[in-house]
Design a protein that fits this description.
It contains 4 helices and no strands. It is mostly helical. It starts with 8 loop residues before the first helix and ends in a 10-residue tail after the last helix.
Length: about 80
């Protein structure tokens, strides 16, 4: 299955269910990037996923998206 067809919903939901969900989601995104999943693919998946969430979790997903695009401290950026 091509990256653009992958569904990361379970990965994202699992991260949000943990303590410190932003850090767990960041770690999951780093792992996906290590598997050569493109940033644009992850951003699109996060954008789609955030529409399903209440405001508290939506803010966490928006923060994770910032980490992917580099709108954050350099040490938190996801390459």
């Amino acid at each position: 299955m091509a990256d653009t067809e992958m569904d990361y919903t379970d990965t994202f939901k699992g991260a949000l269910a943990k303590p410190y969900p932003l850090m767990v989601l960041r770690d999951a995104l780093i792992q996906l990037r290590s598997y050569d999943v493109e940033k644009d693919v992850l951003l699109a998946a996060l954008e789609s996923f955030r529409g399903q969430l209440d405001e508290q979790y939506e803010d966490i997903v928006l923060d994770a998206m910032d980490l992917l695009v580099g709108f954050c401290s350099p040490h938190m950026r996801i390459e």
